[in-house]
């Protein structure tokens, strides 16, 4: 039976519960690695994540999920999750960040979840894409997404006491970024190009020592809110700006009355200073090991879990022994 905790604020116990949620999603989806079935892998992760969320003592509402209720039967925006006891929280999920990466067995696919005090997460509405700029703590006060790429790189390098040509920038390898890539190269910084996965990119940019110093470019708006949970928990810096890529998105935002010139700060994206973030590797990367299945039937996972109030960053190595078919949430 769940413990009816009367507290309305999420506490440190929630952090380890969330990492168990991402472990469940990662293990379930990892069976689909390299099979070319991104929907199968995503569906398995959604099922596992949703089942395990039922067991977590919280009153959660999904703010960033798999879409609106009519389009996604599970983990939809507005869905209530948790036991109904405990803290009231906003939840942001991406059961598989990098579905194509998983489907083709490429690095950097992860299962992620973020949490914050109820009512504190920004709701993207009709915004599908946003421009993002993410750095670690030492450079968070100097970034300005309104400035040129070159000027931001110069400011970041100075804040980190480095040269621009020492910096490595995470960029999604998309046609829309041709001019961005050209300017980064002209400025002298190095580039790490990735087909997908800018939540991972933001996580690495905000964490010192990962080999990634900056994330730049346009990615998904929902992923931007999830990234903000991680960046805020780590203490890094982030700015964003709506960047509609399709005519229908532009029209929808105009009808919504959205200010396309508004700079979205980290506090705009997540107002609360009490944030949690957990991620578990699905496929291997330089940052997190993926799910490994051993010959004895055991499974090994590697996760990161972060809480903003304490500033703690924990890497969790999980060794799971399963004698029967996985049945999360029981």
What's this model, at a glance?
The protein has 330 residues and is an alpha+beta fold. Helix content is 29%, strand content 26%. It contains 9 helices and 14 strands.
Mind telling me the C-alpha Rg?
Answer: 19 Å
Shape: globular
- Proportion of residues in β-strands: 25-35%
The span between the termini is 12 Å
If you average the pLDDT, what whole number results?
Answer: 91
Report the strand count.
14
Structural class: alpha+beta
Sheet with most strands: 8 strands, mixed
Helix count equals 9
- Encode the helix/strand succession as letters: HHEEEHEEHEHEHEHEHEHEEEE
Low-confidence stretches: 1-6
- Residue share in helix: 25-40%
Describe, in plain words, how this protein is organized in 3D.
The chain has 330 residues and is α+β, with helices and mostly antiparallel strands. The chain has nine helices and 14 strands. It has helices at residues 13-30, 38-53, 99-103, 149-159, 178-187, 198-206, 221-234, 247-256, 266-269; strands at 59-64, 80-81, 88-97, 110-117, 129-135, 168-172, 190-194, 214-220, 237-242, 264-265, 275-281, 292-293, 298-307, 312-321. Strands 1, 2, 3, 4, 11, 12, 13 and 14 form an eight-stranded mixed beta sheet that branches. A hairpin with a 4-residue loop joins β13 (298-307) and β14 (312-321). α6 (198-206) runs parallel beside α7.
